[in-house]
Amino acid sequence: MSEPASISSSIAVRYAKAVFEIAKEDGNLAELETNVNDLSAALEESADLQLLINSPLYGRDVQGRAIAAVAETLKISATLANSLKLMASKRRLFVLPHLIDKLRAQLADHRGEVSVDVVSAKALTKTQSTALAKTLAARVGKDVKINAAVDESLIGGLVVKIGSKMIDTSILSKLNTLQNAMKEVG
After folding, report:
1. pLDDT at 9
2. Is the pTM of this model over 0.70?
3. Element (H or E) spanning 97, and its range?
4. Which pLDDT band, with edges at 50, 70 and 90, does 33 fall under?
5. Angle at 82 between CA 76 and CA 85, to 5 degrees
6. Fewer CB within 10 A of the terminal residue: the chain, N end or C end?
7. For the chain, first and last CA: distance in Å?
8. Where does a domain end: 88, 109, 130?
9. Are residues 30 and 90 in the same domain?
10. Nearest C-alpha neighbor of 125 from the set 102, 150, 104
């Protein structure tokens, strides 16, 4: 992980933990999840919002007023809205995408779920996806939510990422391994 991403991630972890714990104490985890999803959608859809959180040209006051307006428009809970305003006053809005990811991870963990990224050469059928989810759930001991993607360059097989672990059974990977072994011999 690069240093700026690591710094952003560590900042986001602290804010996410605080927001999550307060929402949990207040019994507002369902509202927090809705807020996180709404905020994520707004961030994906609005180039202006992305510019606002990433541009050093906007001062603390402008960022604070803008993020307060966004929070009001999206009907964000007071806990999350106050955290966003605090982040703006500290010039930390640039970590918002990381904050969203960390909050989603904490909410999933609280529900006993784990998110798994699966890349395959062809789109998985519903039956394949269900079977893979059951197999992975048995291994990790939690419910599995699969985030599927397609990469035709894999030729066949799967690349499965569970947290920091990666299982690569793709044909491309096996061909690369074979190619490297042949280079060492010759």
Report:
1. 85
2. yes
3. helix 96-111
4. very high
5. 105
6. C
7. 35
8. 109
9. yes
10. 150
Q: Whats the size of the chain, residue-wise?
A: 186
Taken in order 30, 34, 37, 40, is the CA torsion positive or negative?
negative
Cα–chain center distance at 10: 14
Token code pair at residue 48: 């202006």
| Residue 66 burial (C-beta neighbours within 10 Å; 0-12, 13-18, 19+) | middle
Q: Which domain holds residue 156?
A: 114-185
Q: What is the enclosing helix (H) or strand (E) of 16?
A: helix 3-26
The type of residue at 68 is A
Final residue of a structural domain among 61, 79, 109: 109
- Contact between 35 and 74 (Cβ < 8 Å): yes
Q: How many CB atoms lie within 10 A of CB 30?
A: 10
The structure tokens listed for 127 are 């039956």
Surface-to-core class of residue 144, CB atoms within 10 Å of its CB (0-12 exposed, 13-18 middle, 19+ buried):
buried
Q: What are the start-end ranges of the E strands in 77-124?
A: 113-120
Q: How far is CA 35 from the centre of its chain?
A: 15
Q: Which residues, at least 6 apart from 171, have a Cβ–Cβ distance to it below 8 Å?
A: 121, 154, 155, 156, 157
Predicted local confidence at residue 79, as pLDDT? 95
